[in-house]
């Protein structure tokens, strides 16, 4: 039975929602079963939990073994509902978030039942931890489903926090950023039969209408227009598909903007590999190869919704194409004439993401005058080897940007870690006898995720003076065949901090 879950953050401990089927309290290991628990239970729904209710936890503590989870029953609105108590991991070392977002997500998923309205209370040390923990919780219960069966139902998971240092949680911001993350998940989970390059553009236009902000504008360059205007990368990759490729440029330009941020996302709505065809095992899941563009769009959505970074002009560029097979497909040995003016000899049609990104960053740095340009993409399998499945790999020419994005990751749970920046020794990987460069490396055992980044960097405008950041999200964009919504909160936070 398809259940659509809404996630709402608010002061629900002060004002308990009616019609709850369950409640749960989670906190870092060692915090839930301490003396604070009765204080939490004394408010709202937990008021019904009498002293006996906490006994199992205290009992377990006395006997020296903390249980993973304990459920008691409490009266709420004249009916008995289960109230679960559980704990998430506490250790957070140097390269992890300010709270264990991975564990928070897992534990929240376990204690909240799959159906019915529920109240989830998360015990944290600070409002900053509440923010990261809240965004982790929101990634459970993704929206996309085409399961059939009995009547579909809707339910709401209400989330509130007990904050130890009593700093104030910004519920509005949490709701806006969480909604953007869930939109990213939905777009990543949607197959190409529904989300192609045309319906994607329609969805972006509908979002712009919904945001209804006079400082927001949209420009779409599509199909043959791309060819005429010199976007050889996006056009070359996407020209064989049933639906035409597109470059979408969203802009939010406040009147008093004094700096500019350009976000460029890879939007390959399906990646068959092209004529360098992927094997079946490598092709399954390639509906998600537009995750970079979805994250960029999600960040834009959240920035506009919360009116964040009011002194910053923000541009979001979505490079949309399907890497399909047809008589018109671009081929190995073809030479593409890129928007940057450079020529690229194709030696692997499956290294297509960097081609569309190259046109995106070239446009951004030639026309939008950014202080920082960021490209984000599910780009290389090698990223997983370099920085793992939780941390995105970053490459940047600016130490200051690197520091800021590391901080943004720790604050949001969209974690990142730096990869090698050394264009002078890696650029020879792309040497071509007949063009300015090839699109795929000579030696796959030589920092190939950084090489892919340097390929994109080579297409920045020659006179570009700003900073550049590349974020490879091949690993963290998905987990267990579902979109994680990775990247939207990271870029949102970066826009606020840079
Ligand atoms: Zn590919």
TrEMBL record:
SUPFAM superfamilies associated with the record: Zn-dependent exopeptidases
UniProt key word Magnesium: no
One BP annotation, GO: proteolysis
Cytosol aminopeptidase domain span: 348-355
GO annotation, cellular component aspect: cytoplasm
Domain of life: Eukaryota
Keyword terms of this UniProt record: Aminopeptidase, Hydrolase, Protease
Entry GO MF terms: manganese ion binding; metalloaminopeptidase activity
Pfam families the UniProt entry points to: Pdase_M17_N2, Peptidase_M17
Family: Belongs to the peptidase M17 family.
Designated name of the protein: Cytosol aminopeptidase domain-containing protein
Organism: Allomyces macrogynus (strain ATCC 38327)
Organism lineage: Eukaryota, Fungi, Fungi incertae sedis, Blastocladiomycota, Blastocladiomycetes
């Amino acid at each position: 039975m398809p259940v659509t879950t809404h996630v709402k953050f608010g002061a629900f401990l002060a004002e308990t929602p009616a019609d709850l089927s369950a409640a749960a309290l989670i906190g870092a290991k060692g915090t839930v079963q301490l003396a604070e628990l009765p204080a939490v239970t004394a408010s709202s729904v937990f008021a019904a939990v009498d002293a006996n209710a906490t006994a199992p936890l205290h009992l377990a503590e006395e006997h020296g073994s903390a249980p993973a989870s304990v459920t008691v029953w409490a009266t709420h609105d004249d009916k008995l509902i289960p109230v679960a108590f559980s704990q998430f991991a506490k250790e957070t070392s140097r390269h992890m978030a300010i709270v264990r977002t991975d564990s928070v997500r897992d534990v929240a998923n376990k204690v909240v039942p799959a159906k019915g309205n529920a109240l989830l209370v998360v015990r944290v040390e600070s409002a900053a931890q509440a923010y990261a923990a809240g965004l982790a919780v929101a990634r459970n219960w993704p929206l996309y489903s085409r399961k059939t069966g009995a009547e579909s139902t809707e339910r709401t998971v209400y989330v509130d926090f007990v904050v130890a240092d009593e700093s104030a949680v910004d519920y509005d911001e949490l709701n806006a950023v969480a909604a953007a993350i869930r939109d990213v998940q939905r777009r990543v989970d949607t197959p190409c039969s529904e989300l192609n390059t045309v319906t994607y553009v329609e969805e972006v236009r509908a979002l712009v209408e919904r945001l209804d902000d006079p400082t927001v504008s949209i420009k779409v360059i599509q199909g043959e227009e791309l060819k005429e205007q010199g976007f050889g990368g996006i056009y070359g990759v996407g020209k064989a598909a049933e639906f035409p490729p597109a470059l979408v440029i969203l802009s939010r330009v406040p009147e008093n903007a004094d700096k500019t941020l350009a976000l460029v996302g890879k939007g390959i709505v399906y990646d068959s590999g092209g004529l360098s065809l992927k094997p079946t095992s490598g092709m399954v899941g390639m509906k998600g190869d537009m995750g970079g563009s979805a994250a960029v769009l999600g960040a834009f959505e959240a920035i506009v919704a919360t009116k964040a970074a009011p002194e910053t002009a923000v541009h979001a560029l979505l490079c949309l194409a399907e890497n399909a097979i047809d008589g018109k497909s671009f081929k190995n040995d073809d030479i593409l004439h890129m928007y940057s003016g450079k020529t690229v000899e194709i030696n692997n049609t499956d290294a297509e993401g960097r081609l569309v990104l190259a046109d995106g960053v070239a446009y951004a740095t030639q026309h939008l005058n950014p202080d920082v340009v960021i490209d984000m993409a599910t780009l290389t399998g090698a990223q997983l080897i370099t920085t793992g499945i939780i941390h995105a790999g970053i490459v940047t020419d600016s130490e200051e940007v690197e520091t800021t994005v590391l901080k943004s990751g720790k604050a949001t749970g969209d974690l990142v870690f730096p990869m090698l920046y050394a264009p002078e020794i890696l650029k020879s990987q792309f040497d071509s006898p007949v063009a300015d460069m090839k699109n795929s490396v000579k030696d796959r055992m030589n920092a190939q995720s950084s090489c892919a980044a340097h390929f994109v960097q080579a297409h920045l405008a020659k006179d570009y003076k700003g900073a550049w950041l590349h974020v490879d999200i091949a690993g963290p964009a998905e987990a267990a065949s579902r979109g994680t919504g990775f990247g939207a909160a990271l870029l949102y936070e970066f826009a606020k901090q840079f």
